[in-house]
Design goal:
The complex is a heterodimer of chains A (84) and B (239). Chain A has helices at 2-17, 22-41, 46-60, 62-76. With 84 residues, chain A is mainly alpha-helical. Chain A has a domain at 22-78: F1FO ATP Synthase, CATH 1.20.20. In chain A, helix 2 packs antiparallel against helix 3 (46-60). The radius of gyration of chain A is 19 Å and the shape is rod-shaped. Chain A starts with a helix and ends in an 8-residue tail after the last helix. Chain B has 239 residues and is mainly α. Classes of the chains: A mainly alpha (84), B mainly alpha (239).
Chain lengths: 84, 239
């Protein structure tokens, strides 16, 4: 009974953790939009702009990756069940 | 989804960790290393003064890499070209190996954490070489001594975030692809009422996902890991 409760709570927690995916989505969309503007203004610098945008997107993504790691840990190697 | 399988165990006992386990990741990285070594030997043997055929390709690739390093790190740090090139090739081929059915070796935190620790050591050693031990220690109390804990955390957070970024991207691709395959197999048996023994819906549909998760994410993460390494190391060497 306790085990089932902890498992259900971890599953819900894993789902809630992935709400953090909102932030990187907004951030990356913002970066991509600004990059489009920059390419429109200076088409000859498009390769530099793309490279910088990809790097910025990757860095902005890290919060989303942290939440992903937390939910992977909660689902596949649940540490809370072992504490019972 | 499971972690990498343990292929065999070495009979060496290291006290806190137990016996040395050789996992799928390690064996796959041996395969990738062997492939890369053979590819390099094949591409670079019998080089001519006037390039022809495959030599043109290799020279073009090397020049692109050299330009990338020159533009990111500066003219005086071209000595990093071999390391960055090796890292990029190993990471890209290691992630792309998932297309041949191997478990991608970067879907294991140990691999990416190892690479990130190499970057961390490069940054710290170059920092010490540039500023001396005193200057390096002083940089931790730089604006005000009050910020010492946060400076230490921000240094230690770099390798953690780099390794988790690469690992998370590849591993999430693995998880999503596995979920889609399982779902399609279940859908096949629902549609045909358990009649079909071959899950024919798995044919073709997951290839769309594979283009993103295998091709794009692999190359992008290899590039980003190398870019971040170059930026951090050149920052440590310059200012």
């Amino acid at each position: 009974m306790e085990r089932a409760f902890v498992l259900a709570a971890s599953a819900i927690g894993a789902g809630l953790a992935m709400i953090a995916g909102l932030g990187p989505g907004i951030g990356q969309g913002f970066a991509a939009g600004k990059a489009c503007e920059a390419v429109g203004r200076q088409p000859e610098a498009s390769s530099d702009v793309t490279r910088t945008m990809l790097l910025g997107c990757a860095v902005a993504e890290s919060t989303g990756i942290y939440s992903l790691v937390i939910s992977i840990v909660l689902i596949f190697m649940n540490p809370l069940v072992n504490m019972l | 989804m499971n972690g990498p399988k343990v292929i065999f165990t070495l009979p060496i006992d290291i006290p806190p960790f137990g016996q040395v386990k050789i996992t799928e990741t390690v064996v796959n990285s041996w395969i990738v290393m062997a492939f890369l070594v053979l590819l390099s030997i094949f591409l670079t043997h019998n080089m001519k003064k006037v390039p022809k055929g495959k030599q043109c390709l290799v020279e073009k690739g090397y020049l692109m890499l050299q330009n990338l390093v020159k533009n990111t790190m500066g003219e005086d740090k071209l000595g990093f070209v071999p390391y960055i090139g090796t890292l990029m090739m190993f990471s890209a081929v290691g992630s792309l190996s998932s297309m041949t059915g191997l478990r991608p070796l970067t879907a294991d935190l140990n691999t990416t954490l190892g690479w990130a620790l190499v970057t961390f050591m490069l940054v710290q050693v170059n920092n010490i070489r540039r500023h001396g031990v005193g200057g390096w220690l002083k940089s931790f109390v730089q604006p005000v001594p009050f910020l010492l804990p946060s400076n230490i955390i921000s240094e230690v957070a770099n390798p953690i975030s780099m390794s988790f970024r690469h690992f998370g991207n590849i591993a999430s691709g693995l998880v999503v692809t596995n979920l889609v395959y399982t779902g399609l197999a279940a859908l096949t048996s629902i549609i045909t009422g358990g009649w079909a023994t071959v899950p024919f819906l798995q044919l073709g549909i997951p290839a769309v996902l594979s283009v993103y998760f295998d091709l794009l994410a692999s190359c992008l993460q290899a590039f980003i890991f190398c870019m971040l390494t170059m930026v951090f190391v050149s920052m440590a060497m310059d200012d």
